[in-house]
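Onboarding guide, step 5: your first structure request.
Type a short instruction followed by the sequence, for example:

Predict the 3D structure of this protein.
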Amino acid sequence: MGAKIYIVEDHARMRELLRDWIDALPGLSVSGAADSAETALEELPKLDAALVLVDMSLPRMSGIELVAAVRAQWPDIRCLIMSGHNEPGYVERALAAGAQGYVLKGKPSEIEPAIRAVLAGERFISPVLRMSG
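The system replies with structure tokens like these:
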């Protein structure tokens, strides 16, 4: 039994791919998945999640707003933003909201190291964003 990850991603295919992929990683498993921030906020109290993997662009409530809500209600749950936005302003806003990491969707090889770093209490930012900012 490893660390439990909760996925918030509005695209069904991406959500399923992430679920299958994370479940296959040693020491990690998916405790649940949602297509919206609102659903995540309803389900998280019922689950044992160590980390929430949050899509930046969600319908209605944004990923940044979700991170702020999760960190306010459950400070022990870590949050990792997964985004297609590579502008430094997005990273800064995500970190200010309480995210411990920011990984680019276009860099799938960085997702596992990002999850493991954030679970270990470290901050992870996709290297290309660290170089530009």
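Each response can be followed by summary notes, for example: Residues 12-23 form the longest helix (12 residues).
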